[in-house]
Amino acid sequence: METLGSREVYANQWMVVREDAIGRADGTTGIYGVVDKPDFALVIPMDGERLRLVEQFRYPLGMRRWEFPQGTAPERADEDPLVLAERELREETGLRAGKLVQLGMLDVAPGMSSQRGRVFLATELREGFHEREHEEQDMRSAWFPRAEFEAMIARGDITDAQSIAAYTLLLLHEHAQP
């Protein structure tokens, strides 16, 4: 596909929605709607067999959801992924990691969004005070045994695709360890 033109349809501090005119290999043309969001960091805080999750109200779904801490830099800024991971962990849980290891990359919705995310495993954790953004005022944070986390996925209590995919990256990372 070739991009023939692009126009911004909507923008705010978190995203830009654009419409691209495209040319296909067969010579036909069309349009493609794209949501541009900055890359995010998702952090799996792990202490032994416990995982730290956050719960917050997800407006588009109209419900509260448990997930791993994750987010983007303010004002759609590009930020070093490791710095972003450290900040998201601190802001949402109050935790500070002595060790952060990148586990992999996730594409959120490649059929409609340019957003990608890096997944980090956080260990050697120290407790501290959270520094939540205004939109995160109602956020909760709690430790869960891994078995309970997996049961929550099976029951449909955790449905966040990024969190489930990140956990798969953690399992692959663990299986690759000697």
Structure described in brief:
This protein is α+β, with helices and mostly antiparallel strands and 178 residues long. It has helices spanning 81-93, 146-155, 161-176, and strands at 2-11, 16-23, 29-36, 40-47, 50-58, 63-67, 70-71, 96-107, 116-126, 140-145.
| % residues in beta strands | 35-45%
Let me know the largest β-sheet.
7 strands, mixed
- The helix-strand sequence is EEEEEEEHEEEHH
By secondary-structure content and strand pairing, the structural class works out as alpha+beta
Query: What oligomeric state do these chains adopt?
Result: single chain
**What is the number of beta strands?**
10
The first-to-last residue Cα distance is 43 Å
Mean pLDDT: 93
Uncertain spans, ≥5 residues at pLDDT below 50? none
Helix content: 10-25%
Rg, rounded, reads 18 Å
